[in-house]
Design goal:
Blueprint (H helix, E strand, L loop, with lengths): L2 H18 L6 E5 L5 E3 L6 E2 L4 E6 L9 E3 L4 E11 L5 E7 L2 E8 L8 E11 L4 E6 L5 E3 L5 E9 L1
Antiparallel strand pairs: 1-4, 1-12, 2-11, 3-10, 5-10, 6-9, 6-12, 7-8, 7-10
Length: 158
């Protein structure tokens, strides 16, 4: 076999390997829903379930429990944003396997009637790791279809 034939065969093998490499696609974005009213405050921490799904590529978010379970090991990017205000604290925590990773927070105020906050983080997850947003005890956020949101996507696999 000549040099050109060898290179062609090598290229064909590389193409086949790439085609056989399964790439998992994960992208999710949702809002709380909730009909334009406050969610909370509650006397205990609660999973905040984002029911108004905007995008759910890979179907990795459970809209009943509010939990994302990593389908593959990789690096994921997460964001959470809230709208709240008034006399109650606004406090959301991003939880990975029962540990707080990042938070959004705003103190109560009688002078300031509306506040927005957010946070973002890159997480290295193992397959099966669970991530969710917690509405912290005695806190509230505004629930509707566009303001308080949670998003994530798989940046790189492995």
């Amino acid at each position: 076999m000549g040099i050109m034939e060898t290179r062609l065969k090598d290229s064909e093998n590389q193409i086949l390997e790439l085609k056989n490499t399964e790439t998992t696609r994960v992208a999710f974005s949702a809002a709380t829903g909730g009909g334009n009213k406050a969610i909370g405050p509650f006397s205990t921490d609660r999973h905040l379930v984002f029911r108004k799904v905007i995008t759910n590529i890979g179907n990795t978010y459970n809209t009943e429990t509010g939990i994302f379970a990593a389908p593959v090991t990789g690096t994921y990017y997460f964001t959470l944003f809230h709208h709240a205000g008034g006399t109650h604290t606004a406090s959301l925590s991003l939880i990975k396997n029962n540990d707080v990773v990042v938070m959004t927070y705003d103190h109560p105020s009688t002078q300031d009637t509306a506040d927005n906050g957010g946070n973002a983080v890159l997480l290295q997850l193992q397959q099966g790791d669970q991530v969710y947003v917690r509405l912290d005890a005695n806190a509230h956020v505004w629930g509707n279809d566009v303001i308080t949101t949670f998003s994530y996507f798989l940046l790189s696999q492995g």
